[in-house]
Write a structure and sequence with these properties.
- Keywords: Cell membrane, Membrane, Symport, Transmembrane, Transmembrane helix, Transport.
- Belongs to the amino acid-polyamine-organocation (APC) superfamily. Polyamine:cation symporter (PHS) (TC 2.A.3.12) family.
- The protein has helices at 25-36, 44-49, 54-81, 88-96, 98-127, 137-156, 159-184, 203-213, 230-259, 272-280, 283-317, 335-348, 353-381, 395-414, 418-444, 457-460, 496-501.
- It has 503 residues and is mainly alpha-helical.
- Helix 4 (88-96) crosses helix 13, helix 5 runs antiparallel to helix 11 and helix 13 (353-381) crosses helix 15.
- The termini are close together.
């Protein structure tokens, strides 16, 4: 973990204890569903970029196998093995040390903030056909900011509230598409699914749209410290969400493209499923889809905000960020981290949909490449790490399953525009400069940092070390190296600094 603060071993004063019930499997499935999908809203751009339904439909058959499944498998293994709110930051730290882990945290947080900036925009895009007021700057931007503030307040009220809300929102947001699929059956013409004008295909837009609609499986790992028995809950939740995500994309797209006569791919864009509902079911179905889209974007925002803010909390508990990022409200939520993430969302709200997708995909791809490398490295470096769920392959198999998603990530990065390279390069440069600056502040004791050699549950009632019903040799520690501590006498305080320096 690198240098620790020279503050002694006392936890910060007035620690904010964790309150509220922990997440169970069903709310976790809903949160993962909203981290990744939230329904077919936003999928419309893939039809326009693919110049017809053929490429998007093929993508929804191929991408989940090449991309979603490997990422879901890796998330299930590492999140259940290292259940901490630091999530993937902890995975990279355990494999490669704190410098790369900090870069991972910055890239993924920036990508998440960009992603979250999309959802208030999509919310208004679905309302725009019926309420044109939201299409202009006079009504659009104040509404975006007000909506962001309101959803941030809901996130502040507690993760358990967010989890239950996500379950209810999942049911509501998918219900009109069940009606859409049923009503479309008599009108389906399978030949329409084969339409594609390959000369008009926008490869950059197509791959970015498909990747965006099927990524962020790892985001829920930053909530692992808030989950009841993550060793058992995470594998079930990840695979349950995988089935739900694929079905929620594939069935509505089959219905919409197969039942629409005289469909023009150029008309498909943000909010177009509402027009599909109008053509197939009438005005009532259009309004139902618009209402579902609005509520779905609320769920997407809440899930992403939770992941981003708890990631900052987890990084603070590892000593990578100042201790105030770990402060919790009376509801158990990370107050400063939520405000910091909300500020990032508001700052990015002026950007266009396609710009945001391309920027966030590039940063996300950088982070995922590190995660895949960490997955393989931990298989080599720590074969003895207790894995409550283990992907049923050896080290060679672990390398093999990472090859297809890695190739896809590199392809998406190669298709990026010059502007995306510049923006991503600036973010990377900030990370390279910020890490030594934070270490300097830590050494000078200008800002309070949590000493990772102090058991975290004594500092903030945390999350990172879970009491689980697993065999003794399977005790899940904050870092892989911490497993060597389990044989020390209970009365002795673990010298984590010594363990960290022994890397």
């Amino acid at each position: 973990m690198g240098p620790v603060a020279a503050h002694g071993r006392k936890p910060p004063s007035s620690p904010a204890k964790r309150t509220g019930a922990k997440l169970t499997t069903l709310p976790l499935i809903a949160l993962i569903f909203y981290d990744v999908s939230g329904g077919p809203f936003g999928l419309e751009d893939s039809v326009r970029a693919g110049a017809g339904p053929l490429l998007p439909l093929l993508g929804l058959l191929v991408f989940p196998v090449l991309w979603s499944l490997p990422e879901a498998l890796i998330t299930a293994e590492l999140a259940s093995s290292l259940p901490s709110n630091a999530g993937y930051v902890l995975w990279v730290s355990s494999a490669f040390g704190p410098f790369l882990a900090f870069q991972e945290g910055l890239w993924k947080w920036a990508s998440g903030a960009m992603d979250n900036a999309l959802y208030p925009v999509l919310f208004l895009d679905y309302l725009r056909p019926s309420l044109p007021f939201f299409s202009s700057g006079a009504g659009r931007f104040p509404t975006l900011w007000a909506l962001t503030a309101a959803l941030t307040c809901l996130n502040y009220r507690g993760l358990h509230v967010v989890g239950i809300s996500a379950v209810l929102l999942t049911v509501f947001s998918l219900s009109p598409f069940i009606a859409l699929v049923v009503l479309s059956l008599p009108r389906l013409r399978p030949r329409r699914w084969l339409a594609a004008d390959l000369k008009r295909v926008d490869l950059r837009g197509y791959f970015n749209s498909m990747l965006w609609n099927l990524n962020y499986w790892d985001k829920a790992s930053t909530l692992a410290g808030e989950v009841e028995d993550p060793a058992r809950a995470f594998p079930k939740a990840v695979f349950g969400a995988l089935v739900l995500v694929v079905a929620s994309y594939l069935l509505p797209l089959l219905a919409g493209t197969g039942a629409m006569e005289g469909m023009k791919s150029g008309e498909w864009g943000d909010g177009y499923f509402a027009e599909v509902g109008m053509a197939i079911g009438g005005a009532w179905l259009k309004w139902w889809i618009q209402a579902a889209a609005a509520m779905s974007n609320m769920g997407l925002f809440e899930a992403e905000m939770s992941g981003d803010s708890f990631q900052l909390l987890g990084m603070s508990e590892l000593g990578m960020l100042p201790a105030f990022f770990s402060s919790r409200s009376k509801y158990g939520t990370p107050t400063i981290s939520i405000l910091f993430s909300a500020t990032g969302v508001i700052f990015l709200s002026w950007m266009s949909f396609q710009e945001i997708i391309e920027f966030l995909n590039f940063l996300y791809a950088l982070g995922m490449l590190l995660e895949f490398a960490a997955f393989i490295q931990l298989r080599i470096k720590r074969p003895d790490l207790h894995r409550p769920y283990k992907v049923p392959v050896g080290t060679f198999g672990a390398v093999v399953i990472c090859i297809p998603p890695t190739a896809l990530l590199i392809l998406v990065m190669c298709l990026a525009s010059a502007r995306t390279f510049i923006v991503s390069g600036i973010v990377m440069l900030i990370g390279f400069v910020l890490y030594p600056a934070i270490q300097f502040m830590k050494d000078k004791q200008w800002v309070r940092f949590i000493d990772p050699s102090v058991p975290l549950e004594s500092c903030f009632g945390t999350i990172a070390l879970q009491q689980q019903e697993v065999p003794d040799e399977a005790s899940l520690s904050l870092l892989p190296e911490f497993s060597s501590i389990k044989e020390e006498p209970p009365g002795d305080e673990p010298d984590l600094e010594r363990v960290l320096k022994s890397k």
